[in-house]
Write a structure and sequence with these properties.
CarD-like/TRCF_RID_sf, CarD_C, 5 strands
Length: 177
């Protein structure tokens, strides 16, 4: 087996791109199809899900440690930017948003949150827009919560507060003459 590039310890928070933030609860050895495998056992509390990832596959599936403080600051800074809404078909945009969320990249997830956020004075979102917005916000909030050692609702409120302030600034620019 190749040398492990990534190594996680029991108790570490990790990000699994398709599922978000989980915690390594155990390192297991199992024999599967006649081969000895070392597995990380990950627990995702919110989904009440346990996932086993072979240690030699952790890097190729995109599993990583929590983001650095620098990346977190960059993601929160992204939220303050002006939303970019492409004029392509919703189905195409939805696919792009899902790909960004599942990439596990914090800044990409923040872009989705920023682009789909609607302030109270803006038009209502469609059901599918709201679903993607909530998925992205939850993913971002869980990583923020794990990094700042707060609960998810607190992290989510921090994100929404940043978005509301940014929306107030960007909406001032659009005051009719």
């Amino acid at each position: 087996m190749a040398a492990k590039a990534l190594s996680f310890d029991v108790g570490d928070y990790v990000v699994y791109p398709k599922h978000g933030v989980g915690r390594v609860i155990e390192l297991q050895r199992q024999e599967i199809a006649g081969m000895q495998l070392e597995l990380y056992v990950l627990r995702f509390e919110k989904e009440r899900m346990t996932l086993r990832v072979p240690t030699n596959k952790a890097e190729s599936v995109g599993m990583r440690k929590l983001s650095s403080d620098k990346t977190l600051r960059e993601a929160l800074e992204t939220l303050t930017g002006k939303p970019r809404v492409k004029r392509t078909m919703w189905s195409r945009r939805a696919q792009e948003y899902e790909a960004k969320i599942n990439s596990g990249d914090l800044v990409s997830i923040a872009e989705v949150v920023r682009d789909l956020f609607r302030a109270n004075d803006q038009p209502e979102q469609s059901y599918s827009e709201r679903q993607i917005f909530e998925a992205a916000t939850s993913r971002l909030a869980r990583e923020l919560a794990a990094m700042e050692q707060v609960d998810e609702p607190t992290a989510q409120e921090k994100i929404l507060e940043i978005l509301r302030k940014a929306a107030a600034i960007h909406n001032k620019d659009k005051v009719p003459a």
